[in-house]
Every structure is written in structure tokens, then in C-alpha cells.
Specification:
By secondary structure, the chain is of the alpha/beta class. The protein contains 14 helices and 16 strands. It has helices at residues 14-17, 68-73, 86-101, 104-116, 122-132, 153-164, 178-183, 194-200, 220-225, 243-252, 265-268, 284-304, 337-347, 376-383; strands spanning 4-8, 25-28, 36-39, 55-58, 78-79, 145-149, 168-172, 189-190, 203-206, 230-234, 255-260, 273-275, 324-332, 352-360, 363-371, 388-394. The strands form three sheets. Strands 8-7-6-9-10-11-12 form a seven-stranded parallel beta sheet, with helices on both faces. Strands 2-1-3-4-5 form a five-stranded parallel beta sheet. It has a four-stranded antiparallel beta sheet with strand order 14-15-13-16, with helices on both faces. Strand 14 and strand 15 form a beta hairpin. The protein is elongated, with a radius of gyration of 26 Å. The model has no long low-confidence stretch (mean pLDDT 97). The structure holds nicotinamide-adenine-dinucleotide and 3-phosphoglyceric acid. Nicotinamide-adenine-dinucleotide binds at residues 61-62, 82, 85-86, 89, 149-155, 172-176, 180, 207-210, 213-214, 235-237, 261, 278, 280-281. Keywords: NAD, Oxidoreductase. It catalyses: (2R)-3-phosphoglycerate + NAD(+) = 3-phosphooxypyruvate + NADH + H(+); (R)-2-hydroxyglutarate + NAD(+) = 2-oxoglutarate + NADH + H(+). Belongs to the D-isomer specific 2-hydroxyacid dehydrogenase family.
Length: 396
């Protein structure tokens, strides 16, 4: 029986790992020639990817730590786990709004300092508590406007939760999916530009992936559109915000605070920045959800060639038919690829039982079940077709 070595590059929840049958999957950190890599935020850009590799699975949402395009060009799907940690992030964003609105971070520091540094106690402590509290007076959420940029798995949950807390909510996402649109509260107003959203929002929260089109999207010009005393919440990725521009706006008093999950040297020590240590997905529930989803998708790909939730290839799923042999074929998305693949199968005298081909961007993926045995020579013939990237015979 074929066995699949899987290398883990981060701690993955055992709730997910225990779903991998150890008679089929060998799982560990020290694995030679892995068929798959399972990771969270480890940086794969600088890692030499072994020729043995069939797949990469990210137990989480963001894939900016993975060379997705380079892997696509080699016919290697990169799976992620959309929505599996969305509730955890939503709860932290709500907490972040309250931290900023009520100045909680500095307020807690103030009371700790009264005891730990000034050594106050009893009536003296009580006196300073009452004397000092006015400097931390905040604002309430109902009636304020929250702008949500990116209405995907997390953005929709944040928008709906904020709306139920009494905020007016604006949303911006030029590619909102039908699924997300169905989940979005009808009271969330969708606007047609980042500029309109910022100019009408007391607080803005970012829920977009870090890609070329979102890098530095919150910049000096756009911050200037926000009302005086605005709050920026960034639980997406540090790079979507021009942090120097945010700090300049905090220093000038234009912004009230910047709450984020991606500390930098400048941000971590700034009095108006609340920087958390990338905690968005760090709950037991989210870690279990992500691990289960990543492991299940990875195992189904290695065992059956099925692709679900890859960020660089389309979803292609077929149930297995007893007595058939399966081929998984990656090719460039150009004319006559299907014709050449089926011609090779026909020339080998094979009857096709089921065939699915889908494309996404520059690439396409085919799953084909044929009756009877597939000779290794046929696989080589398919690989020799110009535009074929990878072909895999997947035993039942
Ligand atoms: N802090 C954390 O621990 C943590 C946890 C999970 C996710 N994240 C980050 O949050 C991001 C979003 O996660 P998700 O699960 O909601 O992903 P998602 O794919 O479900 O949603 C992302 C949304 O952003 C939209 N989008 C893309 N470019 C945009 C643009 N220029 N303007 C407006 N909208 C745009 C997309 O159309 C999509 O609807 C992840 O890519 C990751 O970087 C961080
Ligand atoms: O993109 C994500 O899912 C989050 O940033 C979580 O990252 P982590 O798995 O390293 O906590």
C-alpha cells in the first residue's frame, strides 16, 4: 500500500492529526522527502521545496506565508481552511473595539502602576482610582459607524456582530460571494469604494488577504478621509496598513488608536497602538477546527485526488467507483488539453468511467476514472503532452 509522509512545520492540533490513519500517513516534524507539508504561519518562501511534494495544507486562512504561485506552476495544490477560525477573529475584533473605545489597555496599566510602582493600598488606592479615572473616559458603540473592508468569512461575522451591538455598519468588498451576501445582515450597507467607507466610518476594520492589491491599502491619503478620532483595527495582516502613516495620524491626534495583531518595533511601544501577538486564531476551538479541516482536505487529496478549498486550483471532487483506476492531471489552461488527454486514454484502449475537468486562472485540473489498469507508459505519454504539468495515478 502507498504511504504518505506528512511534515508538520507548526504545532497542529492533535484533534486534527489523530484523524490521519498511521498505517497510511507518517506524520512528524522530522520527515524526509515529504509528500505533504502541513503548517500554520511558518514561512515557506525561504524553504527549498522537495521534489517529493504533492500538496501543502495551511491550517488557517492566510496563505501569504506560502509561495502559492510557484507551487501552482508545479501542480501542487495549497489548501486552506476558510471560515474555520472566523469566529475566533470576530470575537477579538469586538474585544479590540471595546479596548479602544473604553481606553481599557491604559486604564488597566494605570491601576497596576498605582499598586506595583507607587505602592498604594486601602484608602489611598481608592482615592487615586477615583481621581484618575476621568483620563480614561471613553465612548459607547451604539450610534458609531464601523466600516468593514473585506466581507468574507470573518468580515461578515464582524459586520453582523457589530450591527447587533448597535453600530451602524458599512461594508466594502468588490468580490463579495453569493454565500457571504446571504449571510450578511440586511442592515449592513454595502458601499462602492474604500474612500466612501473611510469618510463615513468612526472605526474601520480590515478583513482582506495580503496580496499585491491590498498591500498598504490604508495609507496617508485614505486615513485623512476618516473623521477626527477614528480607530483602525487590523486583524488581517500587518502589510495591508502603512503603519508609518497610521502612527503619524495617531501623533497628530487625527486617529484615536490602532488596534492590531501584528506588532512591529515602532507599533509595540506606541502609546496609542494596541498590538497583540497574532492572537486572532489562537483559541482551542479555532485550532481544532482548522486542523480538522486541513487534515481532511489533505487526506482526501492524497488518497483520492479530490481538491476542496485549494487557493490555487479549482474544486474537483468525484466519488470513487470500484474497479476503476484514477488519474489526477494538472495542466496549463489552454486549448485542446482535454482532447489530447482523452485521445491518449482512447489510444491505450481504456474506457472512461467518469471525467471532470475544471480550470482556474492559468491552470486546470482533471480527475478521470478509467476501467481497468493504467500502465506506467500511459502516464509517461500523458506527461509528454505539451502543457501537462503533473500526472498522478491514484490507487483505489
Ligand atoms: N489575525 C489572525 O489570526 C487571522 C486569522 C484569520 C485570518 N486572518 C487574515 O484575515 C484574512 C481574511 O480572512 P477570511 O477568512 O475572512 O478570508 P476570506 O477569503 O473569506 O475573505 C476575504 C475577503 O476579502 C475580499 N477582498 C479581497 N481584496 C479586497 C479588496 N481590495 N477590498 C475589499 N475586499 C477585498 C475578498 O473578496 C473576500 O471576500 C486572511 O487572508 C488572513 O490574512 C488573520
Ligand atoms: O491566517 C490565519 O488563519 C491566521 O493569521 C492565523 O495564523 P496562525 O494559524 O499562525 O495563528
Amino acid at each position: 500500500m502507498t504511504t504518505f509522509p506528512i511534515q508538520t512545520l507548526n504545532a497542529i492540533s492533535p484533534v486534527g492529526l489523530q484523524r490521519l490513519d498511521r498505517s497510511v500517513f507518517d506524520v512528524g516534524t522530522d520527515i524526509d522527502s515529504p509528500r505533504a507539508i502541513l503548517l500554520r504561519s511558518a514561512d515557506l518562501h525561504s524553504v527549498e521545496l522537495p521534489p517529493s511534494l504533492y500538496a501543502v495544507a495551511r491550517a488557517g486562512a492566510g496563505t501569504n506565508n506560502i509561495p502559492v504561485d510557484r507551487l501552482a506552476a508545479r501542480g501542487i495544490p495549497v489548501f486552506n481552511t476558510p471560515g474555520a477560525n472566523a469566529n475566533a477573529v470576530k470575537e477579538l475584533v469586538i474585544a479590540g473595539m471595546l479596548l479602544a473605545a473604553r481606553n481599557l489597555y491604559h486604564a488597566a496599566d494605570y491601576t497596576r502602576d498605582l499598586v506595583a510602582v507607587q505602592g498604594l493600598s486601602g484608602a489611598d488606592l481608592e482615592k487615586q482610582v477615583e481621581a484618575g479615572k476621568k483620563q480614561f473616559a471613553g465612548f459607547e458603540l451604539p450610534g458609531k459607524t464601523l466600516g468593514v473592508i473585506g466581507l468574507g468569512a470573518i468580515g461578515v461575522l464582524v459586520a453582523n456582530a457589530a450591527q447587533s451591538l448597535g453600530l451602524k455598519v458599512l461594508g466594502y468588498d468588490p468580490n463579495v460571494t453569493i454565500k457571504a451576501a446571504w449571510q450578511l445582515s440586511p442592515n449592513v450597507e454595502q458601499v462602492s469604494s474604500v474612500e466612501e467607507l473611510l469618510s463615513r466610518s468612526d472605526m474601520v476594520t480590515l478583513h482582506v488577504p495580503l496580496v499585491d492589491g491590498t498591500r498598504g491599502m490604508i495609507n496617508a491619503e485614505r486615513i485623512a478621509l476618516m473623521p477626527q478620532g477614528g480607530v483602525v483595527l487590523n486583524f488581517a495582516r500587518g502589510g495591508v496598513v502603512d503603519e508609518a502613516a497610521v502612527i503619524a495620524a495617531l501623533d497628530s491626534g487625527h486617529l484615536h488608536s490602532y488596534v492590531n495583531d501584528f506588532p512591529t518595533e515602532a507599533g509595540a511601544v506606541h502609546p496609542k497602538v494596541i498590538a497583540l501577538p497574532h492572537l486572532g486564531a489562537s483559541t482551542g476551538e479555532a485550532e481544532d477546527n482548522c486542523a480538522v479541516m486541513a487534515v481532511d482536505q489533505l487526506a482526501d487529496y492524497l488518497l483520492n485526488g479530490n481538491i476542496r478549498n485549494a487557493v490555487n486550483f479549482p474544486d474537483v471532487v468525484m466519488t470513487r467507483t470500484p474497479g476503476t483506476t484514477r488519474l489526477g492531471i494538472f495542466n496549463e489552461n489552454k486549448p485542446n488539453m482535454i482532447g489530447q488527454i482523452t485521445a491518449a486514454l482512447a489510444a491505450a484502449g481504456l474506457n472512461v468511467s467518469e471525467f471532470t475537468n475544471k480550470s482556474r486562472g492559468d491552470y486546470a485540473y482533471t480527475l478521470v476514472d478509467v476501467e481497468g489498469e493504467v500502465r506506467d507508459e500511459l502516464k509517461q505519454e500523458i506527461l509528454a503532452i505539451e502543457g501537462i504539468i503533473r500526472a498522478r495515478k491514484i490507487e483505489a
